[in-house]
Amino acid sequence: MNADLMTWRDELALRCERIGREVRIMEVCGTHTVAAFRSGIRSMLPDNLRLISGPGCPVCVTAQRHIDAAIELATLPNVIVATYGDMVRVPGQSGSLERQRANGADVRVVTSASRALSLARKYPDSEIVFLGVGFETTAPATAVTIMDAHRSGIRNFSVLISHKLVIPAMSALLSHGDVPIDGFLCPGHVSVIIGSEAYGPIASRFGKPCVVGGFEPEQMLKALVFLVRQIERGEARIENVYPAVVSGSGNAAAMEILQEVFVSADTPWRSLGVIPSSGFELAPAYRDFDALRRFNIAVGDDVDNPACRCGDVILGRIEPPACELFDNGCTPLSPIGPCMVSSEGTCAAWHKYHKRATATGALS
């Protein structure tokens, strides 16, 4: 263990001991969840410091109704659905995109929105539908691709918009009031776009300290120390320990692109319901690229498996083993809920890392 890690670990332990109660820090980003397990950070935390996962996995928070809409789109003739890999296996009411592909649907895994647009150029006689999933990190790339399609006159390309915004979700979570949270380890990737100052309302309105941190062990421990310092002092401020990547104001060019292509919209989230102004719909000039509008798809209600507790995991109410399906019918090979599907899902992280750590004595 290097000297920096030891210094941050020791200060964290000292301050948590002085606080003298359980300290609950929510890591909003799914990448932080996985990194905490993979790097062994969890095994270095004081007994009274608890990391809880939040609604930061984009696949996990995609509402069931949008999964069902994507599956319906895949069943239409002459339609190619292009999507990020994790979305293929998320279960809907009538199976998954993976199952539809096995039944003959044309579902392609792409690494970017621009790759989906390339399919539209390659197959001009087919309709290409890209599943626009993710937070402010991926939304600008979707927006740029839509602008490119519009400028190039490509008419066989459309997007099922499921992009979401982090700050409204954090506010909704705190407004529910049923999950005790002392502070937030804020996402590095999203913060590159929106800037650290965007978390101001979380600190001022709700009195919760927010610290933006990176994903390396030293960065994560440093961010936790900064959070615990504030908690010990009774403060609620925004701090950024990732300044090499994240600025206070964010990426102005990316934000301008979002404002050009999208307008804010009330958006459904898995388990959080419809959150006002928490997502996007296409601006009038680009509405021809709205897949729901183009194919006249009516988005229905969410119908989740009542035995699956992904929603409670996303909201930080429980840890995955509290779900009776966890490793009991629900595994990465046979997922029942999206938290076991996504590479950033909390259930998938627990399945992959927690059992391994327990076997070596690193975690209780």
Question: Which key terms come to mind for this protein?
Answer:
364 residues, alpha/beta, Rossmann fold, five-stranded parallel β-sheet, four-stranded parallel β-sheet, 15 helices, 17% strand, disordered C terminus
Q: What does this protein look like?
A:
By secondary structure, the chain is an alpha/beta fold. The chain has one domain: 3-Layer(aba) Sandwich (Rossmann fold). The protein has helices spanning 3-19, 30-38, 58-61, 64-74, 97-102, 113-122, 139-152, 166-176, 188-194, 200-206, 217-233, 252-261, 291-295, 310-314, 346-359; strands spanning 23-27, 49-53, 79-83, 106-109, 127-134, 157-163, 183-186, 210-212, 238-240, 262-269, 273-282. A hairpin with a 3-residue loop joins strand 10 and strand 11 (273-282).
> Biggest β-sheet, characterized?
5 strands, parallel
Element order: H for helix, E for strand: HEHEHHEHEHEHEHEHHEHEHEEHHH
Give the beta-strand count.
Answer: 11
The largest sheet has its strands arranged as: 2-1-7-8-9
How big a fraction of the residues is strand?
15-25%
Principal-axes geometry comes out as globular
Number of domains: 1
State the helical fraction.
40-55%
Tally of DSSP helical segments: 15
CATH class: Alpha Beta
Query: Could you say what the CATH topology is called?
Result: Rossmann fold
Quick structural summary:
By secondary structure, the protein is of the alpha/beta class.
Layout of strands and helices, then pairs:
Layout (H helix, E strand, L loop, with lengths): L2 H17 L3 E5 L2 H9 L10 E5 L4 H4 L2 H11 L4 E5 L13 H6 L3 E4 L3 H10 L4 E8 L4 H14 L4 E7 L2 H11 L6 E4 L1 H7 L5 H7 L3 E3 L4 H17 L4 E3 L11 H10 E8 L3 E10 L8 H5 L14 H5 L31 H14 L5
Helix pairs in contact: 1-11, 2-15, 7-12
